[in-house]
Amino acid sequence: MRAWGTPIRPRSATPQHSFTLAAGFLDGMVAEAAGEDIVGTILGGSHARGTATLLSDVDIALFVRDEAALRPPWYLYRDGVPVSIGSKAAERVRADIAIPPRALPGE
Question: Are 61 and 74 a contacting pair, CB within 8 Å?
Fold first, then answer.
């Protein structure tokens, strides 16, 4: 595994240019992280917003049934792309979105 600061993308585009993940990239990541305790996944950050650049990491959240199944954060490179995977308890997320200030930060 490479350190976060190691250059890994020998591409001609500059960091401010948009970057799209290869077909099947997310399917592979979801399959690798799958487990009986996982009830859902979501892509977050710049890749979800469509604003990713060459310097962007892929942010994936895994939803688990309850807090006992939470996993520690996981950071890796896949096909030269930095990936961060976190987990959230589905029950806590459901409770948070029922409270308007938590559901819509900044509102």
Answer: no
Cβ-contact 75, 86 below 8 angstroms: no
**pTM of the entire structure?**
0.72
Binning pLDDT at 50, 70 and 90, where does residue 95 land?
confident
Residues 30 and 41: their CA atoms lie apart, in Å, by: 7
Distance set, CA 88 to CA 34, 41, 81, 94 (Å): 14, 10, 23, 11
Confidence of residue 2 (pLDDT cuts 50, 70, 90): very low
Instruction: State the Cα–Cα distance between residues 26 and 15, nearest whole angstrom.
Output: 21
